[in-house]
Each structure stands twice: as C-alpha cells, then as structure tokens.
Design goal:
Helix content: over 70%
Organism: Hydra vulgaris
Number of helices: 1
Shape: rod-shaped
Keywords: Coiled coil
Number of strands: 0
Coiled coil: 6-51
Protein name: Golgin subfamily A member 4
Number of domains: 1
Distance between the termini: 103 Å
Radius of gyration: 30 Å
Length: 70
C-alpha cells in the first residue's frame, strides 16, 4: 500500500511538473510575442517620425521660398 501511494504521488508530481513547464513555455512565448510587437511599433514610430521631419523640412523650404519672393 505504501508503494502504491508513493507511485501515485510520483505520478501527481510529474503531472504538476508538466503543467508548470507547459505554463512557463506559454508565458515565454507570450513574452517573445510582446517583445516583437513592441519592436514593430518602435519601427513604425521611427518611420512616422522620419516622414514628419521630411514634411516639416519641405514646409520650411516653402515658407522660406514664399518669404524671399515678397
């Protein structure tokens, strides 16, 4: 009977370890996905910033050209 209880506890332990490992794997995957999302958002923000800076430079040039015409 003691051997049976020990085997039962070993099975339960293995089951819990498997569940823990599975949960950790899922969390690590989620962290990886979130980091990728953050990186993509940063790239998008940098691109938008570059486009806005180019637009501002163009507007500044237009303003300068209009001022020099007067």
């Amino acid at each position: 009977q003691l051997v049976s209880a020990y085997k039962s506890m070993q099975k339960e332990k293995e089951k819990l370890e498997g569940a823990l490992t599975n949960g950790q794997d899922k969390q690590l995957q989620r962290i990886k996905e979130l980091k990728e999302t953050i990186e993509l958002e940063k790239e998008g923000k940098r691109h938008m910033e570059e486009v806005l800076n180019i637009n501002l430079e163009e507007k500044d040039q237009q303003i300068y050209a209009l001022r020099t015409q007067v």
